[in-house]
Amino acid sequence: MPDALIWPAVALVALIVLGIVAIFALRPGLLRLIDRTKHIGRDGAVFDRPQETEAPPAPAISFDELMKLPVTATVLDREETIKRNLQAIPLKNDSEKIAILIKSSAVSQVEMEFINISNLIFGSQLALLVRLSGAKTPLSRSEGEAIFNQAQTAFPEIHGSRSLDEWLRYLIISNLITTADNRISLTQYGTDFLKYLIDARLAYQRHG
Q: Among the three residues 109, 136, 151, which one is the final residue of a domain in this structure?
């Protein structure tokens, strides 16, 4: 099997598992997002939503529960294709197979997290991340506050009653930034998120 086909085949295995988990884990959040839709136009959807103030607990799903989840005929057909592709990969033992699946699962999980953040982040918060990515040193709190104040002026219906700490909190709990000694720093996770937006062609200006 050509090397170029190995990783896509392996990644599909992880995607099926993560996809099923994601449906159940993200379903409440997706339903809330739909309920908060204010307008859908040529430039995309505008949501009136409070951002989460703390990370939701990860769902505990056992192997047996996971395998009993309903799937479609298309998923079952894809499983058979993946099994054939995996059998064609020259792996020495199960340890190598597990290592590949762990790596592909990690890649898929991070991408799912970035997609979720991309759908919830405000344009002004993204502007702060971009500003941080171009700074050699952490920004002062006052510099971050200046960006927030501009957002309050431009979007009073969203940020009028919001404080700077509330505006920063989503970025902190999402591990995009850290704050210490009145300084704001971009994390490696935040840097990777910005790179993902560029690679996925999602680096457009967002509402808020």
A: 109
